[in-house]
Design brief:
A hairpin with a 2-residue loop joins β10 and β11 (about 230). The chain is of the alpha/beta class. The radius of gyration is 18 Å and the shape is globular. The protein contains eight helices and eleven strands. The longest helix is centred in the last third of the chain and has 18 residues, at about 175-195. About 35% of the residues lie in helices and about 30% in strands.
Length: about 240
């Protein structure tokens, strides 16, 4: 069952006297529980597409449905509420509040979007255990390593128990060891808590772990690998035949 379906997404920006098409008629379908990786060069449109799918940006045309709800038709207040209930976000920059402890940073979403259908305390214990943060909860971000700060950011994204976790270059600022550790932790929490994971990354070794890999090229989205193996995409081929 598709938990996310994006159809015919177009996103354009005006740059001086010209129009830049960041996303060009992209379609994406993600099944519940899948790990999807989107790769591509800088400026290819991959982060823009991710932000549109997560409701952080809006397309010029097209639709994005999460759990059957077309989020492109929601009002700003409705969209904010929907994101808080069903989605989580992890970015390359940790964006932690420096004056707050790790625990306080993690719990911020629970204040902004109160969910009464489960115990935050019980869920918090599961996250802390999965991300190995038990001895760092009362430390300030400045007292944590880069990898530990990213773990706190992941915990913050998971505290509201989202159904879809969006990650935009979550390992981009980390060295190889920390990057591998963060990926393993994200996959562990995905398996433990059942999230669907959609990640933008420039790191092919991380993308290789995904169930499917998509590639952005000049705003177009192509399938690069699926359950049947690799599709050696040539972007000189007929784009209409290769477009997913």
């Amino acid at each position: 069952m598709a938990i996310l379906s994006a159809e015919n997404i177009i996103k354009q920006y005006r740059q001086y006297d010209s129009v830049v098409t960041a996303v060009n008629r992209a379609d994406l379908k993600v099944e519940e529980g899948e790990f999807i990786a989107i790769i591509g060069t800088s400026g290819s449109g991959k982060s823009t597409l991710l932000h549109i799918c997560g409701g952080l940006d809006s397309p010029n045309s097209g639709s994005v449905k999460i759990r059957g709800t077309d989020i492109t038709k929601l009002s700003p207040d409705e969209l904010s509420r929907f994101r808080g209930l069903y989605t989580g976000f992890v970015f390359q920059k940790h964006n932690l509040i420096p004056q707050f402890t790790a625990l306080e940073n993690i719990m911020i979403p629970t204040i902004m979007c109160n969910k009464n259908d489960f115990s935050f305390e019980e869920h918090l214990r599961k996250i802390i255990q999965a991300l190995d943060l038990g001895d760092r909860l009362h430390h300030l971000p400045s007292e944590l390593s880069g990898g530990q700060q990213q773990r706190v950011a992941i915990a913050r994204a998971l505290i509201n128990r989202p159904q879809v976790l969006f990650a935009d270059e979550p390992t981009g600022n980390l060295d190889r060891d920390n990057a591998n550790e963060v990926l393993e932790l994200m996959l562990r929490t995905r398996d433990t808590m059942g999230q669907t994971l959609i990640m933008v990354t420039h790191d092919m070794s991380i993308a290789e772990r995904a169930d499917k890999i998509y590639k952005m090229d000049n705003g177009h989205l192509f399938c690069f690998k699926d359950k049947f193996g690799y599709r050696r995409v040539s972007f000189e081929d007929d784009a209409e035949k290769m477009r997913i």
